[in-house]
Amino acid sequence: MRSKLTWMLTPLLVLCMSLSFGQEKTISGNITDQLGLPLPGVNVVVVGTTTGTQSDFDGNYMINASTGQVLRFSYLGQKTVDRTIGASSTIDVQMEEDAEALQEVVVQGYRTSTKEKSSIASVTVSAETIALRPNANFAQTLSGQVAGLNITTSSGQPGGNTQINLRGVGSVNGNTEPLFIIDGAPVDEDNFRSLNPNDIASISVLKDAGATAIYGNRGANGVVIIKTRGGTFNSATRINYLGQLSFTSLQDNDYDLMNAQEQLTLERDFGNGRGAGLTDAEIGASPNFDWSNFFFDTGLTQNHTLNITSGGENINSFTSLGYTNVEGILQASDLKRFNIRNNISGKSENDRFNYGSNFSINYSESNEPNSIGSGAINRNYILGAYQSLPYITPDDYTDGAALLSPLSFANTPLFLLDRLRTYTRKESEVKIIGTFNASYKITDDITAKIVMSGDYTDEHLTRAEGPTSFNALLFGGGANPTSGFQDQFVTRTFTYNQVLSLNYLKTFGKHTVDVGAYSEYFKAHYRRFGFRENGLNPKTFFPGDGDGFITDNGNNDFFVDAPAADILNAGLFSYFGQADYDYDTRYGITGTIRRDASSRFAGSNRWATFWSVAGRWNISNEAFMEGSIFDVLKLRGSYGTTGNQNIVDAVGQFAPFAAADLYLDLFATGAGYGGANSIVPSQLGNTILQWETIEQSNIGLDFELFDRRLRGSVDGYIKTTKDLFQDRPLSAVNAQTILRANIGSLENKGIDVTLNYDILRGGTDGVNMSVGFNGNYNKQENLEIPTEDGTVVGAGSLTGRQVGGPLNEYFVYRYAGVNPANGNLLFLTADGDVTESPNVDTDRVWLNKNIYPDYQGGITFDLDYKGFFVSTQFNYAVGVDRYDFDLSGFQNPNNIGQFRHSRDILDAWTVDNRETDIPSLTASNLALGGSSDRYLKEADYLRLRFAQVGYTFPQEYLKGTGFNVLRVFVNAENLITWTKWRGFDVESALSTGSRQYPTPRILSVGFELGF
Amino acid sequence: MKNIKKLVLLALIITAAACNDAIDIAQPGRLPADVAFQNVGDLQDGLIGLYALYDTTSEIQFNSVFADEISIGFDNGGQGLGNGEYGFVLNPNSAAPNSIWTRNYAAMNIATRIIEAASLVEVGDGEQAQLNDILGQAYGLRAFAQFQVQSYFTTDYANDGALGTIILNFIPTIDQSLPRNTNGEVYGQIESDLSTAAGLLTTQSSATFISQDFVTALRARMAAYRGQYSLADTYASQLLASYPLANRAQYEAMYLDADDTEVIFKLDRTQSDGYNGQGATGSGAAGGWAGANYAFVNSTLAGSPYFEMGRAVFNLLDPLDIRFDVNVDPSSIISPDYQNAVDYRNEDILVIQKYPGSEGVPLMNDLKVFRASEMLLIKAEALADAGSINGASNSTAALIKQLRDARFGTDQPLPTYTDAADAFGAILDERRIELVFEGHRWKDLKRLGSRANRGISRDPLDCAINGACSLEVSDFRFTMPIPIIELNPNNVIREQQNPGY
């Protein structure tokens, strides 16, 4: 705002002032970097005053000052330049990179360092690649941007959870997702629906033990550090608005599904369902309706973000307001979100005391259907969208009561249509994340610091099945015509984290020493309460309201309500130290050691020690490298350990509290036989439970060459998880068949590669073109399995683990096509002989396949020319195998008359069609196909994950408008996918799921306006 | 700025003091094992918890689906077909063996804990009798669980040298891999528990709790399974003296849980217990309402009966027999000429009504375990075994007539059997309709099939869908496989897997 006003008032001011002093004038100029490229955002201050401004997008600035005053130009990573104002009113500045440091700040956990002096493996993603993208959950945006970070989204629910794994999956049963820290506050890694991605300044992904050991107790799966945006001291007030409108739609499938006529003909030929006995004319006259267009439709999404930044001499602030309204592609799924953020930082005049606070208040409301993925024909909308018969239409629906008799599977879409109208499942959430940090330089070398943070989440769940709904009438039965229920649950969690540290930093000649001592305290509280009201009066029922509640009576127990309440607490305490030594920016070594205690192991092995050592050699800084093609060449190495105390991979608010005291032998009270009170054993304790430990070694090379045209890094790693949290199988005689224990070990080893190359460097008036590649190869291996034969296979499971094999490897007998003689399915025995009746136990073989990719990553391409910009990102994954149980349903003859089919089934074996891969519709061993690899399909893909075209209006066009930034752009997410996978969405973390909510294709337009 | 230093110091002190607050956390509401049972009242609550572990819905499901009690319903969504149970798929991964094995071993473990805790609790004045009765019930329940698991996993009931199941009369440690005991040892253990129970129980009869009569009934059934027919006869006769057969009205009321005339023992099912729900439908895991083993919603045509009564069973039922009324829902669509129906599946819909529901809750009914009619049929077996197959009194024929008289409410003809096999065949056929959907069929075929020349036999139209029409009783699948869930941790039992698996 200030800059705008200044700009408009300047002529007037100049005029007025000239009357009295005649000396103050407007200085303007252009600021460029070493290469002559414009440098936006440079702070320009009149020394000794509070007057200041920043250079604009094209490096131009304008400021009022008097002759003889000094202008100070400062920018992160550049040498500060002072210029005294002389006669000229134009001062152009070419800034120089600060050789000493700060080309790029590298987050090192609790401290920061420069890129040159960093010994760790980490990748930082800047705001530019996160903002402007229409994903409600920013983690989805990270997909394909960081080598080694595998992000899969199994649900298209707006703001839905993503599965995030860094460098493979490091735990069998424990949590496998990285620790997320926002502005110093550790937060729930499964819930980002309330956060505004446009507030993010940078995301740093810490990968090796050298980086993560300092987060010892929670760093085992890597650490993701998110910094939100802030203001700058001595800067003008700027207002920025970003608006975006998106259209989300269902991705395509290749199932080749039948229309009504084909479906009815199939039913007639098979002799089951509505088609049985119909004439050609009757079939031809049948309506034709695609239920996927009913349950899914194009969703509209709006995003608005307004930012205000400003900075004075000793304080600066960033304020952001955000509003998002996302309609899911699935009916009854949406997300509305409102955010306010205020980040303030300040300092004392002498720069010794620094403080800052980051607060965000977020409120979201979302409709999230449940039972997604289930086989409940009256509950899972996705099942209705995919599998409903096309000859049933919405016109067949009158109300829920009419569907009761005859009750027929074929009416699946009508049950679900009824549910859409009568069922509510809504979550509203208040999330407050606050951080306060303060540091004080006790001496020039010693700094004390405190960081306090809290993450408060208050979620209200309302779930109601209306009394006139089909489901309520169905299960209520004649005896209970006012069935229906309403759940209302409040879940509150508060986590508090505090880090105290004392840091010593000193340079003696070529030696720099940085030593820190830290303590960390973490405490988390979980409170949940609510009820299920049974019985709703249709006359006064409204979801979330209690007027329609029916009270218990003496005649029956239908209206007895079920209240629930939980209290759980968890905590961690640690103390640790880190020492870093640098010699002449050529050699460096960092050591970390920490002691951690967890409340989870209070009765067993509470304390554990984790440590790491990391070193580097900045080869390019050696004298002998003078004049080489390398601008940067750095060799890094690290080895260390980190711990995991999240014994079970719980999702959401409950996660820090799950499995709170597995070391205890427990009994529980509750309703027993005949509803009477009872005491039952509830838990067999494991008194030797301890931390799961990941040992990781890493060796890496960072390089920049050909005048920095080619930049990149290569890292190799070996990660070994020891004392894995696994379910030790127990004999049934123990009254429980598993015991969570520390057994076995698992290895992930692989390579991360990041490469960026500037093909064209045309500067502001020319063409700039760059390509980037990031990729990860990861190989898993079970090193040790706690059974005699080194394998574990779950009862009824299609996967297992064997020593030497990957995690969750498919372990099934093999499908070998159709027997031309009789149309039955053929399988292979373990020895490879063909059989129609495999032994489901002994003919299973390890397939060396699983859901996790061997290779995955992204390829980016960016181009800009005079304000036009094009940006694309391709994601790929290779070595992913998933069961396609949706396909299995579309090919299943048992479903004829009830559900929809693929045209594949027309090729089924008959005496006249013996050479086919589709078995006879009456094959006697059809059931055996389900637990073979018949539907195990390759799910490798290459996807145009993101594409963007936009235009930034040049400054000269904006003169006189009052704006200094105007940008318009068009985005697409998931535009094209190349894959053999036939389903709606190739990307999923579920190895055997079906009827899931696919992620959408998104097209959006947006604009950004700044003044 | 001095204050800052003080603040930092203060914060350090607070943190140091607070450290234990973060890591010494006792979660509320926990009941540690060592204080769980302190008095007789606690033990009674433990006993109620033990009863709650007993559930026969898996057995009911398995006997119906794997054997020949049901057919695929018109409203079937792959139940019985997807997992192959209806196609005779039975392997260590199947749900029913898993459920029957784990459920009964859990029960034996908890029963043992209660028995052991009994010696540690404080016994107040006048509480000894109550304590004895609790203990007696715990012994009775342990014997029952051991017998249930035995009856599915041993190869041959009558061979004391054959492999039986693991005897569990102690609290094992988690690293123990226990082998199977021989049948002789297992039966000995069961008899020992039953004798102890008989010495402690103070209740003579109770429909829903373990009583002296329960002990006698289990002894009768065990003796019959073992082929010890004179013992079986003795126990069965003892019970028949105090449990008359239900008349037609009582019989009908019994399946509405409104009459216990001939109920010796049943597992109570009510709205406020843990089994009030649908359970796993179409799976041997079952575990909810018994009726949900056959229909999703209720026991009528509109209740989505995914399994229907097998045509072969239906053909054995006379419409004048009360068992027709009890088992066949009136909303059924009965084809007058089912063999020539155009669309058999939709023109002949035989809806199972054995579990119509109670307390207003559809499909929820008490699980009948021992009834007088079973005792009568055990006695009939004993007589057939002894050669008394025909004659107006003290013969198999006389007892079958007695049962049919009660069920028809009219005098029925006295049957004559050509030989013992014929008599055993008649007993099996009578059991097939008298005990249908109560979890007996597969076991009955296993033990009597060869003597009666019977095997699994479905109507040809019922098995057209997958060709699984019949199975000889000599097939290995008349013994369940030790489930994978036990094979995984127990490497000793791996070597003792039943033949064929």
Descriptive notes:
The complex is a heterodimer of chains A (1011) and B (501). The longest helix of chain A is centred in the N-terminal third of the chain and has 19 residues, at 2-20. Chain A is globular and about 100 Å long. Among the domains of chain A are: 2-94, Sandwich (Immunoglobulin-like); 105-231, TonB-dependent receptor, plug domain (Ferric Hydroxamate Uptake Protein, Chain A, domain 1). In chain A, 50% of the residues are buried. Chain A starts with a helix and ends with a strand. Chain A has 1011 residues and is mostly beta strands. In chain A, 8% of the residues lie in helices and 46% in strands. Chain A contains 11 helices and 51 strands. Mean pLDDT of chain A is 88; it is low at 1-22. Chain A has a 22-stranded antiparallel beta barrel. Chain A has a 5-stranded mixed β-sheet with strand order 10-15-16-13-14, with no helix packed on it. Chain A has a 4-stranded antiparallel β-sheet with strand order 3-2-5-6, with no helix packed on it. By secondary structure, chain B is mainly α. Chain B has a domain at 43-77 and 87-202 and 476-501: Serine Threonine Protein Phosphatase 5, Tetratricopeptide repeat. Chain B contains 18 helices and 7 strands. Chain B has a two-stranded antiparallel sheet. The N and C termini of chain B lie far apart (80 Å). The model of chain B has no long low-confidence stretch (mean pLDDT 93). The chains are: A mainly beta (1011), B mainly alpha (501). At the A-B interface, strand 25, strand 26, strand 30 and strand 31 of A face helix 1, strand 1, helix 2, helix 4 and helix 17 of B. Strand 30 of chain A pairs antiparallel with strand 1 (31-32) of chain B.
